[in-house]
Write the structure tokens for this entry.
Amino acid sequence: MNWWRETEEGVVVNVRVVPRAPRSLVQGLLGDALKIRLAAPPVEGKANTELVRFLAGALDLHAGRIQLLAGATGRNKRVLIQGLGGAAVATKLLPDG
């Protein structure tokens, strides 16, 4: 299974987050998920907010175009990205892979 898939609503991305990192960055792939380190603790939604902020910046989209579909309280998350195709999302988040 791929780490992203296109739907009628947009691109759904499987993400595995690692909170409390020194800075937010894409670390690579972990199975069928994109591994992202987040510079935020996993309390009171701060890691989720940082994930949306980070993805918006990396994809050059408004944060309102990114929606958390599943995994609000866990490390494994599904995120909906609107406004870009799957290939563009893959290229911007993993330019070397």
Summary: Strands lie at 4-6, 11-18, 25-30, 33-37, 66-70, 76-81. The two ends are 15 Å apart (CA to CA). The CA atoms of residues 25 and 37 lie 5 Å apart.
